[in-house]
Amino acid sequence: MAARAMLLRRAAVFSPPVQHFLNVRYLSTGCIAQKDNWLNKLLVRKIEPTKESHSRMLSDKEVIFELQAHNLKPGTGKPYLENYEEYVKAVVDKFADKPVHPELQGSWTVTVGDQDQCLHLWKYAGGYSSIDAANKLFASDPDLSRLIQDRNQYLRQRSNQYLLPFSFWPPVSPREGGNIYEIRSYFLKPGTMIEWGNNWSRAIHFRQANNEAFGGFFSQVGRLYNVHHIWCYKSLEDRKENRESAWRKPGWDEVVAYTVPLIKEYYSRILLPTSFSPTH
């Protein structure tokens, strides 16, 4: 109020139009301040400028994952999987004497979501240099080239991404038994990856009691600002129970409330391991 009185006293020396402007300016500024206070309660947090890349802030490992998505022509699932199993065995054989090599972490067929689709998750422990070396071998080795070429006849479309694992997620490890998997893919608004990581570093603690967290990744090459969370369950009923259990834990609802505004689009797919998948 004191500031307003001072402003009005000073305005008295100006012409009526200027006095009107100063009155409106004061009122508008007050409204904006109130609005900012209200909006600040909804914001996750402010991100200060940094000279460190987001990838290094969110991932502390020199490990890169490749997620391959293959959309099949209807009716070609069996010969495609036979081809891919042979390809996996050939990769193991060809890289046996190499210091670093691709490692298949999981191979799945989609049962709910994108039909006639298979997903394969590969791990490169040596960073991008190991990917460069692997790509040279894929292109030059006649056996691998033949298998890749033969596979194309079964495909409608294919895509891949290079991903980094979130440092706060448990490391990917094989699972035994007849499990199902769920991959939840989120497409975030540009500039929101740090907020996502800040919130999920807390959220993951709500989802580890039943060893359901299989892997959490964010894209580095391919479609960007794309996050993939992979969960492991005994069944669809087990999935329902685990997800409902999380909502009963104090703090989970708050994390969801903060992360939903960061998302542009997201979808879920239910996966079944292939016969040659390292994790079942």
Structural class: alpha+beta
Task: Note the gap between the termini.
Answer: 69 Å
Q: Widest sheet: strand order? A: 1-3-2-8-5-7-6-4
The total beta strand count reads: 8
Helix content: 40-55%
Unreliable parts: 1-49
Give me the Rg, rounded. 26 Å
Present the secondary structure layout:
Blueprint: H1 2-11, H2 16-40, H3 54-58, E1 64-72, H4 77-94, E2 102-112, E3 117-124, H5 127-140, H6 142-151, E4 155-165, E5 180-188, H7 193-203, E6 213-221, E7 226-233, H8 236-247, H9 252-259, E8 263-273
Antiparallel strand pairs: 1-3, 1-4, 2-3, 2-8, 4-6, 5-7, 5-8, 6-7
Helix pairs in contact: 1-2, 4-6, 7-9
Report what the structure shows.
By secondary structure, this protein is an alpha+beta fold. It is 40% helix and 27% strand. The protein has an 8-stranded antiparallel β-barrel with strand order 1-3-2-8-5-7-6-4. The longest helix is centred in the N-terminal third of the chain and has 25 residues, at 16-40. Residues 1-49 have low confidence and may be disordered.
